[in-house]
Specification:
Elements: E1 2-7, E2 14-18, H1 31-38
Antiparallel strand pairs: 1-2
């Protein structure tokens, strides 16, 4: 896990841990927003 200090691109909630290293060229979503986008 990677320790990060980001905010969800949709709801703005703090994201502190990701299973991947973000590259910065794509938005990062929290688990709830990502599931809603996939549905």
């Amino acid at each position: 896990m990677f320790q990060v200090d980001l905010k969800c691109a949709d709801c703005g909630i703090a994201i502190t841990e990701l299973p991947f290293q973000p590259t910065g060229d794509k938005p990062v979503y929290c688990r709830a927003c990502l599931q809603a986008k996939r549905a």
